[in-house]
Q: What sequence folds into this?
């Protein structure tokens, strides 16, 4: 009798059997039975690299994503010329904007003061962040290739302005794995606003499934359906069955990693049922800590983002490699003020300023800031001329972001825009350069962290990117 061979049993050697058991679900079962912490550390969640390409300055990244595009000239890049020209026609040539409703030059509604020994000028929007001026490395010359939210978000998160590429968090998880074996390498804390572009901003794309962003919520039950609803033995039996079916096909496919990734996902989900509730339970934090993060604040979005920041600290403390925070809803628009700039930016700043200041304080006093890279950025900036009467349109030609900790040159400013804050004119940089430098700080050469897909090797920076040495301490 002839068989198609698809389900035909296959004899394997003892060496093949040991190899399969060492790499799949059997290894997790063996670890649990043995209770051997050393073995658990070896199995863990290994990354693509056995170790970094060079000594790392940072162990983890916390990405404070400011959805919508904060205005650089109202936050970290003061421009006195805007006051001089306020209400007058903008004196320089302009590019097409998202809505092409171009008004006159618009000064900043906020004063800037110098802070810290470094003298960073920071807007009155951020009194708590300003207390950490000496920890910040402010970049004023970032550029983007896109002026529309969805494409700009894909570009910021994945290095390509279209969907279908892995997020930077997925690349970090893929390259380095997770320090802990009961938490994922890449976590997204959803404060209420998923970016334009949707979940593809956090996708693993063609990387193994275990590297996709695990989305949690900033509340006691951080992950939906994480509680156990059936006995442990029954869950283990289900996982063992699924893993066994997957392993049947490992040798019949050209690329084993997706199937191994699916197996690893099931194993990790089982372990997370114990780990996630413990991480998200903050009742053990002191009242001083809760007050510092704004958990008792009268403005609900501040309480939400405060819990996000506190949860981010607890996650990196337990070994998560990359944590992204999304913005809470402020009962208006995110940092996307096409009108009513003053109220909109003030509401958004009110939501995030105190929690971010608390996060930096907390990381520093715990000795964690030196190996945790904190990044604050939107997908682009805003125009120095008005949209309509009191808004600002999208501007990808020159905007600001900052980094702290993780080996960056604290208390420094890099790059500059023109006198109106419209275009980067000194040391312009691209998102590829940010990605390359971030990976460098994590001990990874961005040119060597690759994945074969579609017939060629891919990387986060594609064929671009350079490490900005001036950003490094």
A:
């Amino acid at each position: 009798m002839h068989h198609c061979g698809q389900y035909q049993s296959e004899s394997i050697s003892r060496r093949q059997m040991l190899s399969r058991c060492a790499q799949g679900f059997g290894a997790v079962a063996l670890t649990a039975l043995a209770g051997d912490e050393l073995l658990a550390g070896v199995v863990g969640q290994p990354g693509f690299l056995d170790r970094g390409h060079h000594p790392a300055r940072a162990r983890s990244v916390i990405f404070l994503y400011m959805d919508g595009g904060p205005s650089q000239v109202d936050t970290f890049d003061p421009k006195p010329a805007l006051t001089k020209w306020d209400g007058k026609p903008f004196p320089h040539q302009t590019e097409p904007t998202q809505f092409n409703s171009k008004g006159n030059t618009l000064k900043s509604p906020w004063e800037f003061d110098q802070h810290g020994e470094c003298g960073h000028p920071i807007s009155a929007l951020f009194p708590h962040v300003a207390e950490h001026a000496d920890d910040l490395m402010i970049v004023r010359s970032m550029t983007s290739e896109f002026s529309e939210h969805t494409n700009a978000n894909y570009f910021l998160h994945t290095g390509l302005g279209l969907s279908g590429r892995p997020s930077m968090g997925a690349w970090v998880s893929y390259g380095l794995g997770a320090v802990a074996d009961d938490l994922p390498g890449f976590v997204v804390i959803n404060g209420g606003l998923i970016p334009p572009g949707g979940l593809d901003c956090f996708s693993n794309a063609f990387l193994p499934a275990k590297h996709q962003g695990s989305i949690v919520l900033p509340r006691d039950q951080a992950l939906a359906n994480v509680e156990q609803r059936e006995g442990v033995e029954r869950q283990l039996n289900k996982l063992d069955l699924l893993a066994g079916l997957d392993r049947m096909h490992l040798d019949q496919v050209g690329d084993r990693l997706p199937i191994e990734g699916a197996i690893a996902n099931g194993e990790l989900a089982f372990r997370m049922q114990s780990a996630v509730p413990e991480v998200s339970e903050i009742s053990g934090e002191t009242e001083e800590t809760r007050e510092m993060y704004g958990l008792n604040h009268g403005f609900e979005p501040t309480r939400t983002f405060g819990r996000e920041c506190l949860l981010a600290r607890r996650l990196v403390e337990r070994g998560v490699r990359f944590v992204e925070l999304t913005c809470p809803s402020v009962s208006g628009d995110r940092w996307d003020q096409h009108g009513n700039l003053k109220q909109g930016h003030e509401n958004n700043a009110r939501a995030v300023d105190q929690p971010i200041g608390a996060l930096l304080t907390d990381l520093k006093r715990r000795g964690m800031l030196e190996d945790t890279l904190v990044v604050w950025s939107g997908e682009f900036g805003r125009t120095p001329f008005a949209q309509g009467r009191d808004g600002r349109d999208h501007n990808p030609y020159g905007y600001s972001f900052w980094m702290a900790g993780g080996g960056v040159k604290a208390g420094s400013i890099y790059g500059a825009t023109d006198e109106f804050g419209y275009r980067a004119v000194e040391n312009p940089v691209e998102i590829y350069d940010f990605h390359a430098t971030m990976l460098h700080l994590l001990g990874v050469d961005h040119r060597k962290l690759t994945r074969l897909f579609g017939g060629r090797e891919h990387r986060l920076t594609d064929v671009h990117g350079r490490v900005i040495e001036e950003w490094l301490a």
